[in-house]
């Protein structure tokens, strides 16, 4: 079993040649006794995608370091950010019949490169397509590495309308390329107040379409800027976070749902700290406004790491995901929600989609999320109407029933005796401790 215990960025010493700084994990044995710690890739959860592995106390030979450097070089982008931008400007000035995109290599082709890609699937590119690279590029859907799902028009417009209505003029897009596109397209219309945007994304293919002040190749699991231009990218990043002339900044992050919550929360905290240092003294104790998009069942972990956030009822949906659809268009309602430190009452959810304002909770909730007078809250997390259990003294899902054996509400066919009783731990069944103190809780979650 493997347990994540802490994380850190390793850029010096024996780990100096790692392309992407690592996370520090710990292997634990039965009973949760102290195990051996090791470094592994922070972005890939499958060793097939990234084979890097190193025990914390290992001494690495020069030959192994050179082998790693060779491996790292083979995985770096062909061009630098500046070279990509130079290519884009040349590409944009070409006649329409010379603008080609290689679907196999996922790259914009200049005239002298057409022959080398003659056996590949190539397609003509219009100006409109250049402005929507997320529709042009094939989504990376490796669930253990990229999980690149893209917002629908509905969710993109809702996010942008909400942020614009709150007066934000700079949007830091962390893993949200479609939101960045919509902002740039709306700016071209010149019908709204212009907004600035900076995309931080691990998919380096977007470097083909944006300049250095619009895109940074970035790993959100450890706040790492890739490439040899880290200083330049950090400069653009800091410049973007600085609020000048009343340009309020907000961050919108859409991480892979398989990612660990603690490293993500740590990254977002670091971004918030950087933002705070760049502002006036009035903001010395404030948190950077943010929206973290994640499934609702991660709420306890997210609030444990960032207690200033609260979960909204709005369902975020995706074009290229079979399940995460809003309402009745998918097999299930989307479980993806917005976690934000913006006042929930200020985020107006669309009434035409069934959302309503709860005068007691002072926030917008889904139509079936009925206020419970006993709990004094609108309790539903999944969009269904929940029911109150007098024995448990809380509201539960409508499909759950109270089990006298387990002393809690659960599904009717749940295995009795393995639940969360008042006397023991529902992770390992021990009567000597509660779940929060269980040495197996993290390893249980990882193995599951």
TrEMBL record:
This protein's record includes keyword Methyltransferase: yes
Main location: cytoplasm
UniProt keyword annotation of ATP-binding present: no
A Gene Ontology cellular-component term: nucleolus
Protein name: Zinc finger, CCHC domain containing 4
Domain GRF-type: 12-59
Species name: Seriola dumerili
Record's subcellular location: Cytoplasm
Domain CTCHY-type: 353-414
InterPro entries: Mlase_EEF1AKMT1/ZCCHC4, ZCCHC4, Znf_CTCHY, Znf_CTCHY_sf, Znf_GRF
Any GO molecular function: zinc ion binding
Annotated Pfam families: N6-adenineMlase (PF10237), Zn_ribbon_GRF (PF06839)
